Amino acid sequence: MKSIAFTALAAFLNVVCVHAASAKQGPNIVFILTDDQDKLMGSLDYMPNVKEHLTDKGVIYERHYCTVALCCPSRVSLLTGRAAHNTNVTDIIPPYGGYTKFTEEGLNDNYLPVWLQNAGYSTYYAGKLMNGHATLNYNMPFAKGFNQSSFILDPGQYVYMNSTWQTGTGVPENFPGKHILDINNERAFAYLDDAAEKDVPFFLTIAPVAPHAQVIVDLDNPQIENRNISAPVPQAKWNTSFLDEKVPRTPNFNPDVASGGSWIRDLPQLDADTVAYNDAFYVARLQLLAGLDEMVGELVSRLNASGLLESTYIVYTTDNGFHIGQHRLQPGKSCPIEEDYIVPLIIRGPNVPAGKVVNTVTTHTDLAPTFFEMLGIDMRPEFDGAPIPVTNTQISSASEDSAQTEHIDMEYWGNLNARNEGNSGSTTPTNNTYKAARVIGTNYNVFYTVWCDNSHELYDMKADPYQMNDLLGASNASSDFTSSLSVSTVASSAVNSTARAPAPGSTQASVTHDIPQLVRRLDSLTMVLKSCKADACRSPWSVLHPQGDVQNLEDAMARKYDAFYASQPKASFSECQPGYILEAEGPQSVIPYSG
Questions:
Q1: What angle do CA 68, 70, 74 make, to 5 degrees?
Q2: The domain defined by 16-55+69-349 carries CATH number 3.40.309.10
Q3: What is the pLDDT of residue 473?
């Protein structure tokens, strides 16, 4: 009996010890952050390892958006949980962006890796941190918050076979003839091995530059407009893959009739040679992503072999979306179109349901709060975002049209970064500064943009997902909203641009709202979002309706609020500027509803 009791006690203690060890080892997070990966051109369809190990084993978020469609400001928002107008990092180069601006704003002392270290996590980083993190300033100061790090530095961040890396506090090292993904993988896996040997939970970021275009900088003349930009360069073993693929020929691909707003509307149709080049550009992106997909398979295998897979969240996303040929645009990003803002987001890990598709609206400003919630860290009051629902319970309680998950704040400043990344002509606009709001509920789905020349666009994304029919009209260039068009409504006052027969068993109201009434609501929402902070970013309708009687766009469309919204200041710019200059941003506050 003593022998049996001793054996049982030993077994119990062994279970307790194993549990304690695993508790020390997790939860962990591996964060994969790609560069310029599209969602709407189907890039995930060519990544079988991502599907097998992440999508099929976790949750894919179908309505996840960046809030600024440009690498550096998007990464800074992601790493701080704050909108770009609050970080004041709005470009990829000084004076409005880049690593120099990031440090000048004090963010090197106050962002995700620093917070994680303070919470007891080991932090590792392999890959691109942000634009402007360069051989000339990598130690002015060193990027804080990392136990171990290896960064790809400018001016070789996007030179696939001749990149420059800087590790820890060492000096930069150049790697001619070696593919940038191979180096990234080696360093990421070395950090994973180090983390597996320690009884400390870890956060590992793997940030390859794939599938970004190749960019070669003339060091004697480094201005952006003089950089040589071409298709990305895949690893040699993928050079014969996907050769027959083409950019999806959606209705907005190189359309016969010009589409879009502002300067986009004036673009010429792409000729046959340019379309062929852009198809080849697309193929090169797929080939590069094949190498990245292979890394995902190896990562999961290594986590499994080290016993860490079940206690580790894997989060996969990108900094911004991408377009090739849509609305006659050359390859690039930074435009107020769905292709540039909607991005992949996949999460697998402890208590995350397998094979789940979630339609809750989420953004990059939500990721830092989500990491905090995953790891049991108290939220920070300056967060503009909120935790993304990850577990079954959280997902089931998240309503698609709740006040917190209905809207996306989109903002952009500048012009040169909207120029094409292809090889045919220039699409540099006079200015590409704008504010935009995406509002998505059960019965409505709209995209509203205010350009810095004070022209406006409005799209019903349910009826017109490719943004081919601007409901405000190509001639609109003012903020008086005098259009006489109308929109039909479903279930009280939801917005659609065309009437539809109700589904069996459903009810369709006959109430209609004209476009000016809709635009006044969207414009007021944009007014709140363009300068919001913290709670106001998460619940913008509460700024307009502090009594709490309006929770979403459908509530706001009640006719009793028509006069209230007509009296609001209009979202506008006093002038076009390349950065966040408050004097150019127009009115900054709304008038709360008093009843």
A1: 55
A2: no
A3: 81
